[in-house]
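Q: What residues go here?
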């Protein structure tokens, strides 16, 4: 119940609903790089990320792999294929040791039919994700590498665009520079140059296998100035 209640979609729901969902969840443990789903294959389970991270990616016709997102604890995976009954949209692999909770399609659909508040939250969640995808597409086509990088860091770190509302604390992004460059579709060398510019402005700190956002409010202000 605690793990489900931490997700934005389910937070604030009545405890009886959370309890009913929790009773039907099954644990799932993945080792680093272990596959969870493959694009196009049937997917009948929705997953809550309890610990670790899920790496979502797709492959182009030329075989090149593009990482689209990393899901962190408190996020859910598999909404669209579970709802429409079609195949998985992404390849999903464990990014380090990862613990999930899986909920079957039948259980989720049953709850959506009887819980209007849950269905409304689902619509809000899907709309929010759609907005992110539209913004990412626009940024990839129109903005500089610096602006795209800042926006990506904000999405991965779950930083909102209202600087005044942000806590003054460091946020760790457990991703290597190679992984970030794959998500942006740029070379590692180009990414390194842009990261160092942000580090020079004291907005981030580059560390081994991670990037630390040292000034979330400052990064949000910088993002607003670049867009």
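A:
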């Amino acid at each position: 119940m605690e793990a489900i209640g931490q997700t934005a979609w389910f937070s604030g729901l009545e405890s009886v609903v959370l309890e009913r969902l929790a009773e039907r969840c099954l644990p799932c443990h993945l080792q680093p790089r272990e596959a969870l789903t493959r694009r196009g294959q049937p997917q009948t389970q929705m997953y809550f990320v309890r610990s670790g991270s899920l790496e979502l990616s797709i492959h182009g016709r030329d075989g090149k792999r593009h990482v689209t997102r990393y899901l962190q604890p408190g996020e859910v995976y598999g909404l669209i294929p579970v709802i429409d009954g079609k195949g998985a949209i992404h390849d999903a692999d464990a990014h380090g040791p990862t613990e999930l909770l899986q909920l079957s399609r039948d259980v989720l659909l049953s709850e959506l039919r009887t819980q209007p508040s849950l269905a409304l939250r689902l619509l809000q969640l899907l709309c929010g994700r759609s907005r992110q995808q539209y913004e990412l597409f626009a940024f990839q086509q129109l903005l500089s590498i610096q602006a795209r990088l800042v926006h990506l860091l904000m999405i991965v770190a779950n930083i909102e665009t209202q600087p005044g509302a942000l806590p003054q604390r460091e946020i760790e992004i457990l991703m290597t520079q190679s992984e970030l460059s794959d998500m942006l579709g740029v070379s590692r060398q180009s990414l390194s140059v842009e990261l160092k510019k942000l580090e020079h402005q004291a907005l981030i700190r580059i560390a081994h296998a991670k990037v630390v956002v040292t000034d979330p409010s400052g990064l949000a202000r910088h993002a607003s100035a670049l867009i």
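A: Context that may help when evaluating the design: Residues 2-129 form a domain with the Jelly Rolls fold (CATH 2.60.120.10). The chain has nine helices and eleven strands.
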